[in-house]
Amino acid sequence: MAEVRRVGIGGTGSFLPDTRLTNEDLSRIVDTSDEWIVERTGIRERRKAAPETAASDLGLEAAKRALDAANFDPEDLDLILVATLSPDHIFPSTACLIQNKLGAKKAGALDISAACSGFIYALSTGWQFVATGQYDNVLVIGSEVLTKFTDYQDRTTCILFGDGAGAVLLQANAERGEILSCNLRGDGSGGDVMTVPAGGSRNPASIETVTQRMHYMTMRGKEVYKFAVSKMAELVRASMKKHDIGLANLGVVVPHQVNRRIIESAVKRLHIPLEKVYINIDRYGNTSAASIPIALDEAVRDNYLHPGQHAILVAFGAGLTWGSVTLRW
Ligand code: UT7
Questions:
Q1: What is the phi-psi region of residue 312: left when phi exceeds 0, alpha when psi lies from -120 to 50, beta otherwise?
Q2: Is 180-328 in the same CATH topology as 7-175?
Q3: What is the tens place of the pLDDT at every residue in 36-95?
Q4: Catalytic residue annotation
Q5: Which residue in 35, 163, 228, 229 has the fewest CB atoms around it within 10 Å?
Q6: Omega cis (within 30) before 51
Q7: What's the topology of domain 180-328?
Q8: Closest CA to 186 of 326, 83, 318
């Protein structure tokens, strides 16, 4: 392998809309209850963006916070990567919209589509550009306004999703958060497990697709559940083995915030104490590609990580896709 540069995290940031959608609120819309949702998912509330707010608006705020944390001028950015499954438009990309709003005049901009694994894919992509010396400063954002693709007539999905954004600045030779490895996987044979059936070139928007509510997310929850538990355990185990990580040098596992029971089942298989796993799903629900950068930002601010300790970021989602990134703080 050609010589690669050390790449670390210069700063993290996150942004959540103010409006809270509680389980109580949802129980007034569909046949559900706070008790059922908390017991089956661990979610108590999620955030909901205003009608006029899109993914680029949330992503922009998270980006500003990550750049502020790094004391970094957006004009010096080389590349902006945005992971999202709820982009402002089919095109232009959400990354281009953020690039303009940030005033990142010399940055390239690109969206990455890997659903809930999107941030892991984007972080891994950004890492390659910096490690090879092509670029020095890459901004990686995960931003979602999932509530606009959520069917509030379907109690099996509408309880799960929320809005938010998180961002990370990748820099050559940054002091903290050195990326050690990534592990990206996919299995397109499971493409129909979670999907938005219409609105793309397969089923373009029509009166029929709208009437049949085909522009909302659909999923087979039980299948996702089993897939997520096994992939989370598999990826974390592989990372710990590869980097010789034990409980002493494991700072935190930051999983995609999919369902508290999924996370707990995987953690049980791994024999890792739950205190080493960052969980905020109770407050934000599942924010897809935004969940890991939001959780990582909070984990950093809550002092979950100390120098020399490792962080394992792990995600799984539609595609099917799954993946992990391992860091040393
Ligand atoms: O990022 C990836 C996105 N995907 C996910 O996050 C989904 C992962 N999967 C899950 O989180 C879980 O499978 C769910 C939370 C979606 C469902 O939990 P479950 O324990 O797998 O429940 P279930 O699907 O087996 O349903 C059990 C019962 C059913 O009733 P019957 O058939 O037993 O009478 C459902 O109709 O619960 C019913 N049910 C509900 N009841 C009250 C389903 N949704 C609700 C609800 N409130 N919101």
A1: beta
A2: yes
A3: 999 999 999 999 999 999 999 999 999 999 999 999 999 999 999 999 999 999 999 999
A4: 116, 256, 286
A5: 35
A6: no
A7: Peroxisomal Thiolase; Chain A, domain 1 (3.40.47)
A8: 318
Tens digit of pLDDT for each residue in 239-263? 999 999 999 999 999 999 999 999 9
Ligand 1 binding pocket mutation candidate from 222, 256, 263, 286 (most atoms within 8 A of CB): 222
Q: How far apart are the CA of 317 and the centre of ligand 1, in A?
A: 17
Mean pLDDT, residues 192-204? 97
Pocket flag, ligand 1, residue 32 (CB < 6 Å): yes
DSSP E strands in the chain: the ranges are 7-15, 20-22, 45-47, 79-83, 108-112, 137-145, 163-172, 178-186, 194-195, 218-219, 250-255, 310-317, 321-328
CATH of the domain spanning 7-175 = 3.40.47.10
From ligand 1's centre to the CA of 216, what distance in Å? 17
CA gap 183, 322 in Å, rounded = 8
Torsion of CA 83, 147, 53, 281, to 10 degrees: -60
**Is the distance from the beta carbon of residue 252 to the nearest atom of ligand 1 less than 6 Å?**
no
Give the pLDDT score at 173.
86
State the pLDDT at residue 37.
98
Give percent helix, percent strand, percent coil of the chain, each to the nearest 5: 40, 25, 35
Domain boundaries, the chain: 7-175, 180-328
C-alpha to C-alpha distance for 155 and 97, rounded to whole angstroms: 33
